[in-house]
């Protein structure tokens, strides 16, 4: 199970959504954090690149002051692909005003040859098509 979103607003609150799984679902720290890190990466077939802190993976990291699932936690630094994009001690106080929340990044389009998003699911469609055929004859 994972928590993810294509909403530019909700994506900023995934830590809070994960914390709700602890409050209302009794999840442990590791289970809740996995729902916004390694589990979505596994579902997308990119867990060899992202989703956990391991040698050889992309360094997408947020360092918090306090527990990351606390609503009182304050991000201190953010790294994307190992590049520091935010540092609370070095960045200007009003830097967020210079970032557009609606500006979109150029999308990376997958081609049939290089995607794995439906890997190992062919059997699901064969069963569904067979059942559909039986019910329609």
Structure, described:
This protein has four helices and three strands; from the N terminus they run αααβββα. With 137 residues, it is α+β, with helices and mostly antiparallel strands. The chain has one domain. The protein has a three-stranded antiparallel sheet with strand order 1-2-3, with no helix packed on it. The chain is globular. The model has no long low-confidence stretch (mean pLDDT 78).
Q: How does the overall form come out from the CA principal axes?
A: globular
Overall radius of gyration:
19 Å
Strand and helix order? HHHEEEH
Q: What about the largest sheet?
A: 3 strands, antiparallel
Oligomer: single chain
Parts with pLDDT < 50 across at least 5 consecutive residues: none
> What fraction of residues sit in β-strands?
5-15%
Distance between the termini: 36 Å
Round the mean pLDDT to the nearest integer and report it.
78
Helicity range: 25-40%
The total strand number stands at 3
User: In the residues, how many domains can be counted?
Assistant: 1
With strands numbered from the N-terminus, the spatial order across the biggest sheet is 1-2-3
Main structural class: alpha+beta
How many helices? The count is 4
